[in-house]
Design brief:
This protein is an alpha+beta fold. The protein has 2 domains: 3-161, Aminopeptidase (3-Layer(aba) Sandwich); 183-310, Aminopeptidase, CATH 3.40.630. 36% of the residues lie in helices and 19% in strands. The chain has helices at residues 11-24, 36-41, 49-52, 77-83, 99-115, 155-161, 183-196, 206-210, 213-224, 235-245, 275-281, 289-298; strands at residues 3-7, 54-63, 66-76, 87-95, 120-122, 199-201, 255-258, 264-272, 303-310. α11 packs antiparallel against α12. The N and C termini lie far apart (59 Å).
Amino acid sequence: MAIEIIEAKSKKDIKRFVNFQFDLYKNDKMWVPPLKTDEVKALLAGYNPSIRKCDTKIWLAIQDGHIVGRICGIINHQYIEKKGEKIARFSRLEFIDDRDVVKCLLETAENWAKEKGMKGIDGPLGFTNLDHQAMLIEGFEHLPSVASEYHKPYYKAHLEALGYEKEMDWIEFRITIPESIQERTEKIADVVKERSGIYVKTFSRTKDLMQYGRPLFKLVNESFNDLFSFVPLDDEMIDFYVAKFLPILKASFVKLIFDREDQLVGFIIPVPSLSKAMQKAKGRLYPFGWYHLMKAYKNNDVIDLMLTGIDPKLQGMG
């Protein structure tokens, strides 16, 4: 049957776009479903300010009346200005095990990018670095974190057959925490703190953490600036991410690092692993998804390191 590519314009189409991922992975034991409401909102310009700063197209692949694939095309003008290269992005690519389907999807995004004056296309990358990005090509036997990407093993072969090449490796690590910290490690940490004048601030209430939201994300801009594909966050996007992420963090886990002038110079944001809870929630907070998430927040022996950064002036000091 012929493959038809249609543009997803309405909220109803966006919901179909999101639901296809759930249909595709429903039998994958290692897939961690996102919250459907979050996925829909992320693609609505009225909710997500980063979309308003990009040219965006969203497409569905239809065959025999059924959705068989999806893709999002993005032209991020902030990134183009920063890099000086007219490179578009493809995002949220999902498809059945059929090379013709992914070929049609990618060609649609590529042709649109060419019409917009772009010289190439990279992906999977999102609107910002706090959006979906990268493609899993190894480690399908491991349960990912809620911030990780999970894909079908056949994706890599299909994309390579269509001429796409890996540009960058992003590697995740799993660390077993020792029962006690070595004395030598503690001494080194004490020496670094004494010489640099830095100190660590902890929190017991989210309310106290929220006042550092803007400085924290401004430090994200500084510490991540040289990383591959990084898109700086402006004030509007910073306020968006502060409101979206900080209220759901476990404040007692967050550590902020300050220098002797009381300037924020580092941060580490771990959260209790929510992967199994998200699988039980099946993409919904209600009626029982919230219960599984709250239970995981209170009782967990695994943490996921969501975000960490250090002021470039202090990087390499230990």
